[in-house]
Amino acid sequence: MQALPPFLAAESLACRRGERLLFRRLSFRLEAGSACHVTGANGAGKTTLLRALAGLTTPFAGEVRREGALALLDERSGLEPDLPLGRALDFWFGLDGATDGDAVMRRLRLDALAEVPVRFLSTGQRKRAALARVLGQAAPVWLLDEPLAGLDIASQGLVSALVREHCAAGGIALIASHQPLDVPGMTSFAIEDFAPAETEDAEA
Amino acid sequence: MTAALLRRDLAQFFPFTGSGAALPTVFFVAVAMLFPFAVGPDAKILARTGGGVVWIAALLAAILPLERLVARDIELGFFDQLRLRGMAEETMMAVRLAAHWLSFGPPLVLATFPAAALLRIEGESFSLLLLGLLAGTPGLAAIGLMIAALTASLRAGAALSGLLLIPLALPVLIFGAGALARQDHVSLGFVAAISLALVALAPFAAGAAIRAAREN
Fold it and tell me: Which residues pair with A199 in a beta bridge?
């Protein structure tokens, strides 16, 4: 079966948190091989946007369209806190049919931590473990929420390199982050540009 | 994917491998052991009231694992990650129900043997008690799962779920303990029917609850 080229598109998307409208009329379309950087202040709605794009929440208005499997990295690793890291990751590798789990762990410098229970890992180590889970998923569409938060300089460079490779291989990456990433050709938009004016809260 | 999830859920909840998962069974036996001390060693009184005590102990034991049944995996983002891989919330909850029941139903039935010996429950009453618990615990597990999923996003969820389970479990308790008082198998049929309906309903109700928990 010939797989269709992946894409990720939002059409006139609007999302709320509680009673507050965070953004509206947000539209974009990412084709295979493109990366996009979403910026915005704390609470502007980056995480809400990513969860709506992932299909975890229903947007208030508008539509998300997508071709290709999706991997989401957020502040929750999905890894069993009581298990050693190696076994916690093996659960997801097994589920995703990843055969190169060891290579992925070496790439993210996690191989020395395989026996350490997940709850003892530092913030940065846990972030790298979650990245390993994303890599093992081998999904064409990546949604990364603050992938650089808590990472040291070397690891931040590694994330940029991983995104570059992912896009070079025809993948799509949408990254919400306060820090810049070194990815050539990456587009970007600020979520505040789509925030409603004070007066138009009611409609949208 | 479902098989891998069931293995993971079982490893997490099963007595002696999961953390603290043997507690409900130990608690159940402890109640059966305390009761003769409280009412005295009169065999007649024990035999008449013991069945009800076992049922109440089973009900309370069903409350103990609720706290970590659903809320923990929502916080971990575990269900979200499964959703992204195309698994329906209903499937996740059906698997969770199976794992939850397997981790407390059969151990409870096994623990009924020492509990019944302590309470002098013998003969026909004993077999009615065993069959009743076999038929009733899936229903208790289903109620527990629904409540755990509904209260997962609440701050005082753990305390609340215990309170909510008790009234909902009343029909199972009435027919289950009633079978002992009347010595008939018809009541057990009711217990099984209630359990079946609850088990069929629980994955959908719990699935909808964890979907709704994402929206806030």
Answer: none
User: Testing the interface with A: which of B13, B80, B84, B87 to mutate, by most A Cβ within 10 A?
Assistant: B84
Interchain contact, A58 vs B215, CB within 8 Å: yes
Name the domain count of chain B: 1
A129 contacts A121 by C-beta, under 8 angstroms:
yes
Domain that holds residue A131: 70-138
Mean pLDDT by 10 residues, chain A (204 residues): 81 89 91 92 90 92 92 91 91 90 91 93 93 93 92 93 93 92 89 80 50
| pLDDT one-digit tens code per residue, B46-101 | 888 888 999 999 998 888 888 889 998 999 999 999 999 999 999 999 999 999 99
Where does the pLDDT of residue B9 fall: very low under 50, low under 70, confident under 90, or very high at 90 and above? Answer: confident
> From B77, which residue of chain A is nearest by alpha-carbon distance?
A78
Same domain, A4 and A50: yes
Strands of A60-164 (E only): list them.
61-67, 70-73, 141-145
Q: Are residues A119 and A134 in the same domain?
A: yes
Instruction: Measure CB to CB from residue A95 to each of B77, B85, B215 and give the nearest one.
Output: B85
Mean pLDDT score of chain B: 89
Q: Residues 112-131, chain A: which have Cβ within 8 Å of B?
A: none
pLDDT at B20: 59
**A55 inside 8 A of chain B by CB:** yes
Q: Which domain holds residue B143?
A: 2-214
- CATH assignment at residue A5: 3.40.50.300
* Residue B12: pLDDT over 60: yes
State whether A95 and B83 contact (CB < 8 Å): no
Going A73 to A75 to A80 to A82, the CA torsion angle's sign is: positive
Separation between Cα atoms, residue A2 and residue B56, nearest integer Å: 59
- The residue from A87, A115, A138 where one domain ends is A138
Q: Do A57 and B77 touch (CB under 8 A)?
A: no
Please list every residue in chain B whose beta carbon sits closer than 8 Å to the beta carbon of residue A79.
76
Give the nearest partner residue to A72 out of B75, B76, B84, using CB atoms: B84
Q: Which residues pair with A188 in a beta bridge?
A: A37
Q: Which residues in chain B touch residue A72, judged by CB atoms under 8 angstroms apart?
A: 80-81, 84
- Distance, CA of A55 to CA of A28 (rounded, Å): 16
Amino acid at B8: R
Query: Is A146 an 8 Å CB contact of chain B?
Result: no
Give just the sign of the alpha carbon dihedral B16, B17, B20, B24: negative
